[in-house]
């Protein structure tokens, strides 16, 4: 069965960096686009970033563009989110999610989600 | 960016009720609209994609309809396990924005 397991969250000071990982199993990771979505405490969902199946295309929310980088290692079935210059407003649970479509352009239908990892940005 | 709104923001209902949640987009998104259910402390779960297609394994009491700017999620014969927060999400254009959510709780 499909499994997505995030790791790497924690408490970090403003301005510092953190890298999240998402280990995937139960499906052919290298053929699906992957997303990061976040949820601030008590708030709604915010789409953060998307990477195509082969890593050739990346897309970002304006709120993280230039600070966050999504990447993947298909040989390790792992998705990453490098977060730099972190701010208080980046405090959230970060979910990785699988796109449901095998296509050059992902459909942005998120059919499987990980359990999330909490990132707290605080001094 | 495409802005998504949902109404109502919350509702109280009883087991067996029929519930309808509306999602409105700031511009036409055709049928590029998905619905997710989220329970406290859990990850969201895909219910409906492409406005009206039921995700595998989701009970048939959930249904979606509409296109353009207005889409609805209907839950027939509400069950205890359906009390949760529901989010719509447009997949028409990047950034893939979510609605603010509709919390369904027990009356």
Question: What does this molecule look like?
Answer:
Chain A is mostly beta strands. Chain A contains no helices and eleven strands. Chain A is globular and about 40 Å long. Chain B is an all-beta fold and 107 residues long. Chain B has no helices and ten strands. In chain B, the strands form two sheets. Chain B has a six-stranded mixed sheet, with no helix packed on it. A four-stranded antiparallel sheet of chain B has the order 1-3-8-7, with no helix packed on it. Chain B is globular. Chains A and B meet through β5 and β10 of A and β4 and β5 of B.
Q: How would you describe the oligomerization state of the chains in this entry?
A: heterodimer
Largest interface: A-B, 23 and 24 residues
> Quick one: overall form of chain A?
globular
Number of alpha- plus pi-helical segments of chain B: 0
User: How far apart, in Å, are the first and last alpha carbons of chain A?
Assistant: 40 Å
Structural class of chain B: mainly beta
Biggest sheet of chain B, in brief? 6 strands, mixed
What is the alpha-carbon Rg of chain A in Å?
Answer: 13 Å
Order of helices and strands of chain B, N to C?
A: EEEEEEEEEE
The whole-angstrom Rg of chain B is 13 Å
State the share of residues found in helices of chain B, binned by percent: under 10%
- The amount of beta strand of chain A, in percent, is over 45%
Low-confidence stretches of chain B: none
Runs of chain A in which pLDDT lies below 50 for 5 or more consecutive residues are none
Structure summary, number of beta strands of chain B: 10
Percent in helix of chain A: under 10%
Task: Give the biggest sheet of chain A.
Answer: 7 strands, mixed
The main sheet of chain B orders its strands as: 2-10-9-4-5-6
Mean residue pLDDT of chain B: 97
- Binned strand content of chain B: over 45%
* Overall mean pLDDT of chain A: 96
